[in-house]
Amino acid sequence: MSDALGSDQSPPALLIRKLASTAQLSDRDRGAIGMLPFAVLTFPGRTSIVHEGDAPKQCCLILDGWAYRCRTLANGQRQIFAFYVPGDMPDIESLHLHVMDQGLVAIAQTTVAFVAHKDMRALIQSNTNVAMALWRDTLIDATRCRERVISLGRRQAVGRMAHLFCEMYVRLRTVALADDLRYLLPLTQAELADALGLSSVHANRSLQELRKMGLVTLHRRELIIQDWSGLATTAEFDPSYLHLI
Amino acid sequence: MSDALGSDQSPPALLIRKLASTAQLSDRDRGAIGMLPFAVLTFPGRTSIVHEGDAPKQCCLILDGWAYRCRTLANGQRQIFAFYVPGDMPDIESLHLHVMDQGLVAIAQTTVAFVAHKDMRALIQSNTNVAMALWRDTLIDATRCRERVISLGRRQAVGRMAHLFCEMYVRLRTVALADDLRYLLPLTQAELADALGLSSVHANRSLQELRKMGLVTLHRRELIIQDWSGLATTAEFDPSYLHLI
DNA sequence: TTGCAGATTTAACTTATGATAACGTAGAGA
DNA sequence: TCTCTACGTTATCATAAGTTAAATCTGCAA
């Protein structure tokens, strides 16, 4: 992928920057996060970081690459719930809910930093403010999930896709992985379809519709937004649900 | 509705019982929750408890009745995100996210107990364990949201409806508002449709399909599950995502 | 270069769901 | 009793999206 996010690339620095994008952190908070011991691991594309049914003893922080959470139904259909990008901690909830009811999968090659639950718990116990920031982060994850519900329930395919493109642009921009209305979107159309509740054929049709409308191009995994306001209108996109400061 | 939930009907007692259904609470925790000052208010059916765009200064606890969170799109379509029943605190998140991006609406006549944010914050600051239980509760709310995503994305209308009926049965049973495979479902078919991402006509068709399959009856707001295992199979329902102890 | 595998695109056809409108029913209140 | 209203039901037609299959295209490795 790419090394954005400013100078200090260490896992704690990334986590601090991420949490500070949605909450206020004091120097004491930053210091406490800075002490967290992380173990860094790289996963090849399309491999599982956490399996459905696992009971992890650690949380992970995406450093580089993308991941998604998904579940497979009995008939083999898949639903992708959410995408995670650098700075995100996709499984903070495993601190509280011990069995993962969905898997976490690396999309392209993805580097992840793990912190043991016990270290996270110690941090949370000793630093209420950081606990609140983490809690807040999980709540924002939930608002994104609700936005997904509205998309699936009440938007048509083209609007859903436009909405996802808008959301990812805004999120990637906060970690300096998008600018100038373009970003790397390492998804196949089949994965896009699984996220949007579509068949891959219809995902393809919808994408072409967006192209035909002159809103985006997507070629070689690079998404270019040609008409932001048109795209946002098509999506009825209002970024306030992301609760960025 | 009905007065279930055992002997002590006070708001703190209800909250304690609810949190204890998904987390361990010590006597000290229970004592601390018991001290929370609540203000009780009753809302007529189809009135707004919290408006979209509000910045509430209090959290609410449903004592009696049902409520739902919803948002209305530009074209007038509505999406209901979640239903809340006695024992639920639908807007704990307002402690952390100050503007509600959706409304909270009472369905039938609904009684609600309000706690001021400052009192909740004091409780959370002084009692980490209760904070963790509340956090955990918001995470379970999020797992329900994800379950909704899977329903909307990958299940057909009949399966979606079956899944909702299963979930509400299990949830209502934990607060003694359902037993013997039946419960009060105070929703119109139009509301059911808004929750399931369907038109009301198709919600009606799907309901009739469930009846024809011999799985449920719904008459005069009473839902009777005639064939639990058939319904659960149709829904591919697995209650583990509710994380009940 | 060639061949291969995965990804995208296109086409033809089917199906689930939406939209609209008419009609039925039951309860509330005059 | 009558009327009004909110809901539920039914029918018809329109359309978004699914399914299947085959034709390209792309990148990659031999």
Automatic annotation (TrEMBL), chains A, B:
Residues 155-229 form the HTH crp-type domain. Keywords: DNA-binding, Transcription, Transcription regulation. The keyword Transcription regulation applies. SMART domains: HTH_CRP (SM00419). Pfam families: cNMP_binding, HTH_Crp_2. InterPro entries: cNMP-bd_dom, cNMP-bd_dom_sf, HTH_CRP, RmlC-like_jellyroll, WH-like_DNA-bd_sf, WH_DNA-bd_sf. The keyword Transcription applies. This is HTH crp-type domain-containing protein. It comes from Methylobacterium cerastii.
